[in-house]
Design brief:
alpha/beta; OB fold (Dihydrolipoamide Acetyltransferase, E2P); single chain; 1 helix; 6 strands; 5-stranded mixed β-barrel
Length: 123
């Protein structure tokens, strides 16, 4: 008698801006640059935000150490934490992929094209 394995497929991680993490559930994906790093965590600034002054940062919990000033795509789950300031969010990384050679402008253009195509298809 053979035993069948039933595997449930995860939903894909949604691409979000760091500033939109609060109140988000499920897997998320961010694109950012490491501002500070130490063993087990890193402070990552959003690269999807068009205005640098408005780019939010988030503490990302990782295994190992990320490289400061490198770009990363991080997939993880949002964790809400209470601290001295109030409720904050951290991202518990499942995967942190170094994409240092990644062309951010081209990626943003592709996202805009995808958005236009989807809006045309929904009509």
């Amino acid at each position: 008698m053979t035993e069948e394995r039933v595997s449930r497929r995860r939903t894909p991680a949604r691409l979000v801006k760091v500033g939109e993490l609060k109140g988000t559930s499920g897997l998320v994906r961010i694109l950012g640059i490491v501002v500070e790093a130490r063993e087990g965590s890193a402070l990552i600034q959003d690269l999807l935000e068009d205005e640098i002054g408005k780019a939010a940062t988030v503490e990302v919990l990782v295994e190992g150490t990320l490289v400061v000033a490198h770009k990363y795509i991080v997939i993880g789950e949002v964790v809400e934490k209470r601290d001295s300031v109030g409720m904050g969010v951290k991202l518990a990384a499942i995967l942190a992929h170094d994409v240092e050679g990644f062309d951010i402008k081209e990626f943003k253009r592709a996202l805009e094209t995808e958005s236009r195509v989807i809006s045309e298809l929904v009509r």
